[in-house]
Fold this sequence. Notes:
single chain, alpha/beta, about 10% strand, disordered N terminus
Amino acid sequence: MSxxxxxxxxxxxxxxxxxxxFFVSKCNYFAFSLIESWPNWEKNIINIYGEKFSGKSxxxxxxxxxxxxxxxxxxxxxxxxxxxxxxxxxxxxxNLEYINDENILYSIINFVEQYNKYLIVNSINPINTLDFTxxxxxxxxxxxxxxxxxxxxxxxxxxxxxxxFSDRQIKIEKKVIEYITKRIERSYGKILDxxxxxxxxxxxxxxxxxxxxxxxxxxx
Length: 220
């Protein structure tokens, strides 16, 4: 996926973080159920992980709207941000892979445990597999609930395609969506890239989307 496509998709996805826009299937049910079941968690720290565009940020926004929470992006993690999070019961760290100071992360976990707060960490890979060197940090990361968002299943692929086509007012038959579902790569990024290409094709050619055009876009 090109950087331009990613920027366009990111801009649009930020507008669709509503509760009703989040589709639940087997691939993300556990992560969604954790968000819904707060504060009845077995542990105070959960790690939601999965590939880009899999819905981690969407779940965080849902949680934030339902409960008093603050979302901290990776570039906001520094000594100053402790002044912000002390007023919140729930803290969300986004894009943990890009954190560049293990000591701060360790301090965050200590802070959460000391003041009995709750922490959601979003990452592409489970945080206990990341290349951290602090022994105490690695030990603390074992005491988390891990929720993986799996690759999209058929139900998720169908729902994503239907939703995005509907948002763009692209008319397409159910059987064509089923055709796409069986053939598209099971990757959230690839699905969104495909939707973007169909949208561009529709805008440029100003004609209905048929099997021939779908096949051509899939082959690209």
